[in-house]
Amino acid sequence: MALIAFLQAQNCSNYVGSWRAPASASDFLTAEYFARIARTLEDGRFDMAFFDDRLAMPDIYDNSHELAVRHGIRSVKMDPTVVMTVMAMATRHLGVASTYSTTYYEPFHVARHFATLDLMTGGRAAWNVVTSLNDSEAANFGRGEHLEHDLRYDRADEFVDIVTRMWATWEPDALVVDKETGFFADPAKVHRLEHDGKFFTSHGTFPVPPSPQGRPVLLQAGASGRGMAFAANWADVIFTHFANVESGTRTYVKLRQGIEDAGRDPASVVIAPLINVVTAETPELVERKQAMLEGLARDEDALALLCEALNTDFGTRPYDEPFTDTELRAMSYQGLRDRVITLSGKENPSVRDFVEFSGRGKLREAKIIAGTPDKVADQLEELHGTCADGFVLAAASVPGTYDDFSRLVSPVLRKRGLLPDRYEASTLRENLGLPPAGETRDAA
Hints:
The protein is an alpha/beta fold.
C-alpha cells in the first residue's frame, strides 16, 4: 500500500483552516518545522512527501488579496523544491516530490533542477507535472492571461517529452572517473538532444548524469478528460479524487484502461486517491476531533479557493444565479467544474452549488476516513486494490494528522502486512514498487 503525504510549503495544508487547529504548529517558516514532519512520516513508513503548489496567492475573489491575507488562505507560498530538500536531508528513505509548472518554466531548467535534486537525495525525488490554473499565475510571470485548457496540455506533452529525453541522454555506465588514465566519461554514451517542436526548440547536451533510480518519478493529477489522458501517458503515480467506493472504482478502472491504451502496463503505475483521516484511541475522541476540525471551515474561504482554481471571480456575482454555458466553458479547472455539475445534478450550477458541492475549503473535499486505528485500517484495506494502489493523505492539522496516523494507524497496517516493517529499498521508485526508469512501456 503506497502512502503519500499531501503537503504545502505554506502556512496551511490544502485544508486552509488547518493553521488554526490546536494540533498545528506555527513555526512553518522554519526548516525544523518541515524536518519534524519528515521524521514523523518516515517513522510511519510513508513512501513520499508531496508538495502541491500554485504560483500566485489567491487574489481573484473580489480582485483582491485582502481575504487571503486576513484569513491565511494559502497566503504564504515558499518554493517547495527548497523545502523538500530540507525534508530529504532529515531522512534516509522518505521520497520527496514537488509541483513544477510546464506553462511558466522551460524544459532544460526543470530537467536539470529535478535531476540534481534526484542525485542529492540518492534517488528519492519526484516531479509533479502541472499546467497551472489562473491569470494570477500568468501575471506573476509577466503574461497577459493564462493559456487555454487543452493548449496547456499540448504544451505539457511536448515539455515532458523533452525533459524525459534529456534525462535519458546519459547511459547508466557513461561515467568512468578514472584518475589514473584521466578518462572521465565515455562520449559515445552521452547523447545530444536535437528538438524542434511546436512550442519548444532545444539543442544541446544535458549536463547531469542519472541518479540511482535512473530519473525522477513523475506524478500527475489530471481530472478532466484531457488531463486524465496526459496522466495515463506520462505519470508513474496518478492522484485521484473520489466520493465513494463506486465512483472511485470507476475512476480506477478508467485510468487503468487509459494507461493500457497509451501502450503502458497498468501495473507499472500507482493510482492513489486523496483522503482525510481522523483517528484517535476511542470512538468518542474521534467524534469530538472530527467535529472540531470540520468547524474550522468557512464558506468565505471556500469562495477564495474556488476563484483561484476556476480562474473566475465569484465576488460580485449573485449567489444563486446559474452560470451560463459560456461561463462554465471558460473555467480553468474543468475536473472541479465537472464534479460540481455531477454532484449538484445541475447543468448550470450557481455560486452556492460550487460552495456546497465542491467541498473546497472543507474537510470533506477529500474522502473522510474516520475511526479508531483498527477501523481506519479496515477501510483502507477495503479500498486498497478496489479503487486504489495507495493513498494520498491530506492533513486537517499539521503535524497533528501525520502524528496521529504514524503513531496509531501505521502500526496496524504493518501488523496486517500492508506496510513494511522497514523500508525495503533506497530509492523512491523501488519503494513504490515501480519498474526501472524507461521500462514502463508495453514491450509490444
